[in-house]
Amino acid sequence: MELHKISLMDAYMIETLRSNGISDKEILTQIEQGKIESWQELNSNFDFQELINFAEKDMEGFKKALSQGYRVKFITFNGLKNLLRLRFGKEKETDYELTETGIRNLNLDSEQLVDLKRMLSGNWMVEEQADTNNLVVNIELS
User: Fold this and answer.
1) 33-77 confidence digits (pLDDT tens)
2) CA-CA distance, 5 to 22, in Å (whole number)?
3) Alpha carbons 26 and 17: distance in angstroms, whole number
4) Which of 35, 37, 54, 83 lies at 20 to 30 Å from 21 by C-alpha?
């Protein structure tokens, strides 16, 4: 299955909404109704109107991104750190170590690893090692 490709900013906005307890169904309903004003309180730096624009241009792609997952077109190093925090609640130095070219010793469960691999753009390489209960993941620029 080919995942819908979205921008890093769209991924940030979707994951910000999700991390604040807004379900995919609620996101879709509010996008369809154009009622996104309350979202500005979650992050005043985001222009959530861009999600409406995305949906208006490609509603089917928007729905697939929410329901089936997505691949980010291009993820920067800082973008990766932000997505790890927003999507998985992982923080640098607490949950992983930074290197010059990536991330080391990130603990994820198997479902999180699948999600991470699906969303990463092609400029990242994932190496996994089995641990007792989790997977230890290293992510490097390729």
Assistant:
1) 999 999 999 999 999 999 999 999 999 999 999 999 999 999 999
2) 22
3) 10
4) 54
